[in-house]
Amino acid sequence: MNKYRISAWAAFLAFVCVVASCKTLPDADRLPDQPAKATPTVATPRGALDKKKASALLARRWANATPDLKQLAVLEEQATGVPLIAGNRVDLLFDGPATIRAMMDAARAATTSINLETYIFDRDPVGLEFAELLIEKRRQGVVVNIIADGVGTLATPKEFFEHLRAGGLNVLIFNPVNPAQRPGKWQLNNRDHRKIMVVDGKVAFTGGINISETYANSSLFRSRMKASTADANKVGWRDTHIRIEGPAVAALQYAFIDNWVSQEAGELPQVDYFPRLAPAGDKVVRVLATTPERDSEIYKALLLAINEAKKSVHITSAYFVPDQQTVDALIGAAKRGADVKLVLPGVSDHDFIKYAGQSFYDQLLKGGVRIYQLQVAVLHAKTAVIDSMWSTIGSANIDRRSFIHNYEVNVVVLDPAFGRDMESAFNEDLRDSKEVTLEQWRRRPWTDRIREMLSRLTEYWI
């Protein structure tokens, strides 16, 4: 091997080490298995409730829940360090176009501020309509701040964002791909995959939906990837979002402002981003806003909930490339007698992720996990409902990229009534899905097996 080839390999390995840093996920054996206290911490706008008041509030909110819910809430707090927030209204948004309409309606009603954080902001009919609405709100005196990811918006023309800036909007491109635009702190591999919109500090939206006619995954190599099969070009996209009112809105507002500050983008315009928030409903939630510097709280919360599951684990995952600990947890829940079902993509926009995830099917099916592939849409939702009382909706996929490298946000809702809504949504997806059996799976073509093996080698990056 000549010296030039050696130098090239050395440069490539150095790039891999710098960009990837080979960070690992938390050790499942170190997750708490015994609650350190009887009652979880419950935060309010005036501070944390004392133990007696917190216990009384949760007794009212969780009157129809099993005793396991309080124990899981305590264990999750121990694992994540994040308190519960009481007094919220949480609306499940199951339809993409309806969600965009709800977000636009909220934006139209804004009087002081709109903070929008998105992985993708496309210059398509939806993106253009949204942009013109935001510009009009700025003309009315509303402060509008936008964070859009550098990789997620690679295919969006620069002129689009210049148009927004010319309209008076404050636009931040998060971790630009060009290192000259982020000197000294270039972090190509750390993407902002969050989807947050906060209006007047009082109403918030979050989940999996980008500002786009279609949605795309969080791969480092995504750019503007089109659906990878002919069928995927003919169907719509299936995603899930939530609308929140109440004290939890402040946690999402803080996540937005913290990300803005972390980019050293200058001071945000002065406005009351944190108005006093009265209780708006009876939902108790936990807001998990993770960064590459934190300890994978979304991953730990999900793994802990699966490990504590007694009756059911129902997961809908757009990009499912689990680590072995997650696989073991799912199989463990199935062996304990829980009904473990996964709704995964039948039509995908990303072959690498699809085949990397399918490389785990044999082990999961053999372990008693039931797998269904959604047939009627490109799946982009990232949700789970466990024992019909613990639910999570957010931006994080079940893969290393989301848990280790991305900036993500998931909301955990601890509520049996909301859990029933989540189960209804899951069952609707189930009706539009085809079950994969172990016998059938083992008859798949060898070409697919080779694709799975090769794609599995790329799982750290996709």
CATH superfamily caption of the largest domain = Endonuclease Chain A
CATH architecture of the largest domain: 2-Layer Sandwich
Radius of gyration over all CA atoms, rounded: 22 Å
Main beta-sheet strand count, sense and barrel state: 17 strands, mixed
Percent in strands? 15-25%
Report how far apart the termini are: 31 Å
Number of strands: 19
Could you name the ranges where pLDDT drops below 50 across 5 or more consecutive residues? 1-20, 216-232
Tally of structural domains: 2
Secondary-structure-derived class? alpha/beta
**CATH-defined topology of the largest domain:** Endonuclease, Chain A
CATH class of the largest domain: Alpha Beta
Proportion of helical residues: 25-40%
Q: Which outline best applies?
A: globular
Helix count equals: 15
Q: What is the averaged pLDDT score?
A: 90
What does this structure look like?
The chain is an alpha/beta fold and 462 residues long. It folds into 2 domains: 28-87 and 282-456, Endonuclease Chain A (Endonuclease, Chain A); 92-262, 2-Layer Sandwich (Endonuclease, Chain A). It has 15 helices and 19 strands. It has a 17-stranded mixed beta sheet that branches. A two-stranded parallel ribbon has the order 9-15. Strand 16 (382-386) and strand 17 (390-394) form a beta hairpin. The longest helix is centred in the N-terminal third of the chain and has 18 residues, at 3-20. Mean pLDDT is 90; it is low at 1-20 and 216-232.
